[in-house]
Amino acid sequence: MIDAGSLARQHAGRSYHRAMHYDLTTLPNGLRIISEDMPSARSVAVACWVDTGSRDEVPPEAGASHFLEHLLFKGSETMSAQEISEAFDAVGARNNAFTSKEYTAYWARLRDAHLPLALDILAEMVRRPAFRQDEIDSERHVVLEEINMNEDDPTDVAHELFVQALWPSHPLSPPILGTRESILDMSRDTIAGYWGRRYSPHSVVVAVAGRVDHAELVELVTARFGSWGGDPLERSLAEPSLVARVNLRRRDTEQAHLVVGTTALRRDDDRRHAFLVADHILGGGMSSRLFREIREQRGLAYSVHSFRMPFADTGAAAVYVGTTPSQAPQVLKLIRAELDKMMETGLTDDELLRAKGHLQGSLALSLEDPNSRMNRLGRNEIAGVEHLSVDEIVARIEAVTQDDVLAVVREGYAGPYVMGAVGPFEPGELEPYVA
Q: Which of 36, 69, 124, 381 is catalytic?
């Protein structure tokens, strides 16, 4: 039999030695350009990252960040939606966008020779959206269908209920998609006003990775974005208070969907690498404690995993599990027992070694293509997180000790706990498991 711990020890001293190199330029108008050259690539990944998300909306704008993401693909003052899609399609590009609670990104991946085309289109979309009333009305129905789709997915509902239980009355609480009511009521003036307030060169980062020359990139971006003006943005940050609670959506489902967790580290916390180690051992893979205990040994669930949600002013650590409703009490007791065990004793030496090896190996694999590198550059720059080389990250993971992990889990998993739950439960039935 192969000893996994012995194998991990044999390879513990090896690291991935390709350092991440990047160039960063800030234009006079405040727009930032960040790039990483990958000489062996024949493609580029490019994105406009905008420092705005659902947390920046006031109540009448609920869902505006995501609605706006859709509308920017509907065309600009000089390009129609069809012209945008045909231009990308004609060069074999892949393109899309996504919205989070704190940022929005519009991206494309295509041959390096077509980078000027991608920047042409992205500049049109971001700087000069048309906001045609008929396209707003048609896309409104698309967003409503997306809301309906999420409402039909009990896993998505459980996660939304968890966030609302964790951060009630906080800007992070409202759903990214908005609500049916807010989307139905949202006018052209509201959407255009939100764009005018939140989209400016001070809030945008153009990130590129692949076969790219930074000096040429700066010239290309300056020609398309350099004349754009606007004021710096502000974002209100506030550390939320936490009270144990359960948010329940009663449904007669065959499976209960449960998300239980608590507040944890912010995204810029220096202890985040130790917390990554702890999260992986708790529920990050098939060798994790929760997977082994709940699925492999007891057969109580098909899906069980832990996850982190780091933001600018707070964060969360949580566990998701889907299980037969009658088994929910037993599963929740096991989750709490594993959390208590980690806070009491931390990890074993073998667990610590395996987690370090996993994180270091995953990091290397994640940097194999331009898109993942561009995402890392853009996300870190827009979030204000330091750009570490691969060697620097590997070194920080390698430096994590048992004491580091024990200290961070005692803070990160200390509670109080909250829960988002979907299933055939009665009010109050799940409260004992967050006490």
A: 69
